[in-house]
Predict the structure.
Amino acid sequence: MNDSHFDLIVIGSGPGGQKAALQGAKAGKNVAIIENGSDVGGGCVEYGTLPSKSFRESVYRFSLGSQGVLGKETRRAPSPHKIPEMARLLERKERVVLEESRVIRDQLKRNSVRIFLGHAKFTSPHDLLVTGKDGKNKKIKGDVIVIAVGSSPVTSETLGLDGQLVLDSNSILTLKQVPKRMIVLGAGIIGCEYASMFSMAGTEVVLVDKRKQMLASVDREVVDHLMERYRYQGMEIHLGVEAVGVKKIHGTSSGAKKSGTKVGSSSGKGSAKGASVEIELSNGDFLSADCVLVAQGRIGNTKDLGLESAGVVADDRGLIKTSSSFQTNVPHIYAVGDVVGPPALASTSMEQGRIATCHAFKIPSSLIAGNHPGTSDSVAEMSTLYPYGIYTIPEISMIGRTEEELLESGVDFVAGKARYRELARGQIVGDYWGLLKLLVDRKTAKILGVHIVGDNAADLIHIGQAVMAFEGTVHYFIQSVFNYPTLAEAYKTAAFHAVNLMRGTTKSK
Ligand SMILES: Cc1cc2nc3c(=O)[nH]c(=O)nc-3n(C[C@H](O)[C@H](O)[C@H](O)COP(=O)(O)OP(=O)(O)OC[C@H]3O[C@@H](n4cnc5c(N)ncnc54)[C@H](O)[C@@H]3O)c2cc1C
């Protein structure tokens, strides 16, 4: 096997890169993958999806065990709430990161993918210079190159990120203690997820976003549920304002007071002992806390990639524009994953990686997941069927169109709803708040969208996804038998509601 000339070179070993490389190897190509992290797995394994979801799992189990999490048994109960130790909450994450890196490394090796640990830089459209951890350079050539370099949090000069008092999503899990009070700047997916987790761990969380809406692309009713739940837990939410200044107080004071007050002396358990931080908002208010999480968007990791030598164009956010097959403006160079912009999820990145390699090597289109019975050759069409999982507590998941989008495009539809509290399983798990909503075309009875907020939403969504992919109707849910007691029964309850709405025999819930 040639060690310097490859059929396919993949830059970045996150979900997008892995699947691009494996698809190439499975098709018998000579494949190399380059990763500048300490091991394979990408940002997904090192500081993104897996660390955050492992931390969430620990927090979730902690809160279920100690105070109840799902509505009925809440922290409003008079029992004193004990803040868990950060080190304990992180044990699961350490194990998962190690194990997943090993699984990915083994999988790549088993498929004879050559792994280079080092930084890749284009020197020409087909040539890359890989600078290893030991500083040594190696030149390699690729017939096809897939850029899967991921993204990084936007750093704000104004907010003085320091990894101690002001942190981003890459550094938040280096906190030594669970903070008593934390400000989260940015109510997008990452901000909302960490706000949920720390709130469940016992932190007083203050969520701030300059936009007037949280999670703008999510169904409004679902977001309203989440906000209601956040407020019930005691979270403070400030929308339509932004942070314009930051003051770090080291040493003398310890801890932070509530919003609108200056930092004084209280017994905080913040990130850096005896230190706290004060944020000035655009409306003139001040917020203080033990630490701040900045989650205000991400930019593509294209800065030191030598794109100019390859002739590939990136925009001012470092994002690369591609065709629906993930081909860049240079035909043999593809880009997938976070570096091509939304939806920027691990799940979608994997699929994009596979699609790119299939396209590059003309692997029969039936192997491209975007083609499925009932539709034409349609990567773009499939993309509307990507599910979204948002791991707030409670979880949110959705697929297809929102009520707002359907109303805007004048589609005649009904929204069949099921509350978890109507289900035996909902009662058992104590999820008083959960909601599943089926959006159904009034004429064809086809499912146009599914929106869920509540326990297990991200798993439940796949039932709706399958029915939608096969262009099923609401009657599927009515005619099917579901295990009892399960949360999946919500589909059946919502379907009955939808059909009754279509017949005009019931009202909207
Ligand atoms: C806190 C957080 C939580 C998330 N939670 C979820 C979730 O629950 N579900 C979900 O689906 N998605 C989630 N995501 C998003 C998900 O992690 C990303 O969409 C996914 O990791 C993107 O995959 P990727 O292949 O584009 O790149 P990445 O996983 O970012 O990997 C890219 C790799 O390329 C390396 N690299 C960069 N430049 C070079 C170079 N020049 N040479 C060599 N290597 C290079 C990087 O170091 C990195 O290791 C989350 C993200 C964050 C930050």
Remarks:
- Residues 11-17, 34-37, 42-44, 48-49, 52-53, 119-120, 148-150, 169, 190, 301, 305, 337-339, 344-347, 349, 389, 391 surround flavin-adenine dinucleotide (CB under 6 Å).
- The first strand starts at residue 5 and ends at 11.
- Residues 75-80, 260-272, 369-382 have pLDDT under 50 and may be disordered.
